[in-house]
Amino acid sequence: MTIRMKGVILAIAAVGLIFMGGCALNYTVKTPTPSALPYTDKADEETALKIVDQRMGDDKKFSVGRAKVNLVNISDEMAFLSENLVNELNSRGIAAITSDADDAALLFTVRKYRVRNHQSTGFSPFQTAIIVGGDFVSNGESKKLAFYFRIGKVPIWSMKEVVDPCYNIPLSLMVKELASKINRFSFGLQMPREKVEELVQEIQGSDDNFLFMKVLELGYTNHPAAVGPLLQLADHSDGYVRASAICSLGVLGAVDQFEFLKKCYYTRDDDEKLMALKSIGDLNTPESRNFLRSVKNSPDYGHARIREVLDLFL
User: Fold this and answer.
1) CATH code of the domain occupying 22-188
2) CA pair distance 49, 51, nearest whole angstrom
3) Is CATH 2.60.60.30 the classification given to domain 190-314?
4) Per-residue burial over 138-158, b = 16 or more CB atoms within 10 Å of its CB, e = otherwise
5) What whole-number distance in Å separates Cα of residue 53 and Cα of residue 65?
């Protein structure tokens, strides 16, 4: 046995001991970097965004799950959400500001907001799910605003290896997706078509392990030209890419893809099925809401992850 292999085995064993011992893991996550992908037009008029915490009972616990994790630099998760959401909107040319005023133009009432941490054993992938849900009101209309993303990483040398893929990346995606939906609901701005074409070219032929992040960016463009490429990417060889393409159809509000998303829900497994359900919720049409109610009244609702996604919208 080589020295390297012995080191790997010892490291995995150490991870296993940490997990089995029930010790809490303390991680410091990065502040999300704004995307700096501005829309073609800008919303220069200062617009106030108020975020209200309406979580109740156990839902007020931010970091939960079988694995005990403390995100030591997020002492106030609502402030983390508010500040980074405004920074992301600003980076795209929307002059949003945080506000506590009752008459704020944009109001997001948060009812679910948590990081779920999970690891079956010290030898299995460490997984997180970032979950946000609530009611967003602007221009006199209320819509469900939700985010759900699940990802896993097998730690080899150290549990710190999970910080980037399981925390930094999904928390950054959370901010970007919610900002994209706020734009679509309230401002309707788009990124240039050239940006869509540029992203498609970057995706084609790439085998980057984080290619799914480029696919998610197609959804952030709020441009209908992204729908065709996303339908093709929904059949990609990589599972994260497929799930991200399905997710992005919902971020775009591609209501004409309702039947496709229904088919994905019934024929796909795991995260692709969950993303299809989330995207159907994102469509926010009478047809999509009826479908969600039918799922809630079916045996599928007994599955914890399906219930977790569905409850963000019903």
Assistant:
1) 3.40.50
2) 7
3) no
4) beeeebbbbbbbbbbbebeee
5) 21
- pTM of this prediction exceeds 0.70: yes
What does the pLDDT look like over 105-137, one tens digit per residue?
Answer: 999 999 999 999 988 666 678 899 999 999 999
pLDDT digits (tens, 9 = 90+) for 73-87: 999 999 999 999 999
Domain definitions of the chain by residue range: 22-188, 190-314
As a residue count, the chain comes to 314
Please give the Cα distance from 211 to 198 (Å, whole number): 14
Instruction: Report the b/e string of 12-26 with b at 16+ CB within 10 A.
Output: beebeebbeeeeebe
Answer yes or no: same fold for 22-188 and 190-314: no
